[in-house]
Amino acid sequence: MSSDDVKLILEEIKKDRNRLERKEKDLKEIEEKLTSKLEKVASLTRDEAKKELLDVIQKNLTVDIAKKIRQGEERIKLEARDKAREILADAMKHGATTYVAEYTVSTVSVDSEEAKGRIIGREGRNIRSFEKETGVEIELDEGNVIRLSSFDSIRREIARRSLEILLKDTRIQPSRIEEVVRQVKSQMEDILLEEGKKIVQECGVFNLPIEVIKLIGRFKFRTSYGQNLGLHTIEETKIGVAIAAEIGANTEVVRLGCLLHDIGKVVTDVEGNHVDAGVTTVKRFGFPKEVVAAVSEHHEDKPFSSTESVIVWIADAISGSRPGARYEPYENYVKRMTKIEEISGSFSGVEQAIAFQAGRDVRIIVRPEEVEEDKLTVLANDIARRLEKEAEYAGQVKVTVIRETRAQATTAAK
C-alpha cells in the first residue's frame, strides 16, 4: 500500500470522527432541551426530581418494613407467651419437694399401749407435768400414735424431741420430764442448725456461714398465712433455679436470692419490715450485691435491677399464690379484707377502694372532680398511715391511688 493510500484512509477516518463529534454535540443539545422542557413541565430540577423519586421509594419501603415488623412482633408475642407458659409449667414441676412441714400438730409413734401408760403416769401426773414444761397439749387416741398440738412450732418441736427421748427411757416421772425438756431447750441452737442444713441442702446451697444456716433453720418453725416458710423456700428455690436455667440467667444468684429472700422474717435483732431486715442481714454476711438486690426487690418495693431479681419475684409469687399454699380462717380473712377496704374508702374524694393479694395491695379510685392530681401522693400516704394504725395485715400494704378522666362522643345514627 502506497503512502497516498494511507493518507486517504486517515483523511476518511478524520472526517468520520468529525461527523460523530457533531452528532454527539447535537444529541447533547437535544438532551438539554428535553431536560429543560421536562423541568419546566414538572417545575422540578433534576436533583429535585431525583430526591422526590427517592422519597417515594423510601416511603414505600418504610411501609413494607413497618408491616413486616408488626407481623414479626405479633408472631414473637404468640411464641413468647407459649414459651413462657412452658417454662413456668416445667419450673413448677421441678418445685416438688420431699421436705416435711408440720403446721399445728406433730406426731410421735409408740410401740405399745404400755409405753402410752408410762407417758400418762399415775393419775395422769406425767402428762400434766409434760404439758406444763413444754406448753404443748398431748392427745392420746386409739392406735400407736401420740399427737402434740400447739400453735407455736418451736414449742411443739421441743416437745416432740423430749417425748422421743422419754419413750426410750423407762424412767418417766415428773422430775425426769423436767430434766429432759430443759436439756432439749438448751440444745435448740443445735436443732436450728440441723434443720437449717436440711433446708440448704435441699436447695442445693453449701458453704454458708453457721449463723446464716441457724437463721434458715428457723424457717421450719415459721409460717406465713399457714404456709411453712421452710417448705415455701425450698419450693420457690427449685422453681426459680429451673426458670433461670431455662432462660440462661445466673442460677447461683437466683438460688441464693430465693433461699434468703424471707430471712428477715426470722431476724429479731433488726428493726423494720422483713425486707429491710433481710437486706441488712445479707449485707452483714457479705453476700454479693446481686443477691442483696434480689432480697430487696422481691416485693417490688424497688424497681427490678436484674433478670435474676425478676425470677426471684416470680418464683415467690408462684409458690405463695398456688392453690392450697396459704390459708386462714375464712371469717377472719373476710373481716380483715373488709376492714382494709372500709378504712381506705372513708377518705374524702374516694369513689371505690379494692383490696387485692390478701390485703397487701389496695387500689383506690378517686373522683377526679374532687381530688386534684397533685394531691394523689398525699392521699396515698394518709391512707397508708391510717392502715398502719387501724388495720390488721401481714407484711406490707401497697396503696395505689388512681385518678382517671374520660371523654366520650357519640356518632350520628345512620
TrEMBL record:
InterPro entries: HD/PDEase_dom, HD_domain, HDIG_dom, KH_dom, KH_dom_type_1, KH_dom_type_1_sf, Ribonuclease_Y, RNase_Y_N. The keyword Cell cycle does not apply. It comes from Candidatus Woesebacteria bacterium RIFCSPHIGHO2_12_FULL_41_24. It comes from the Bacteria. Gene3D superfamilies: Hypothetical protein af1432, K Homology domain, type 1. The lineage of its organism: Bacteria, Candidatus Woeseibacteriota. Keywords: Coiled coil, Endonuclease, Hydrolase, Nuclease, RNA-binding. Endoribonuclease that initiates mRNA decay. SUPFAM superfamilies: Eukaryotic type KH-domain (KH-domain type I), HD-domain/PDEase-like. This is Ribonuclease Y. Residues 3-47 form a coiled coil.
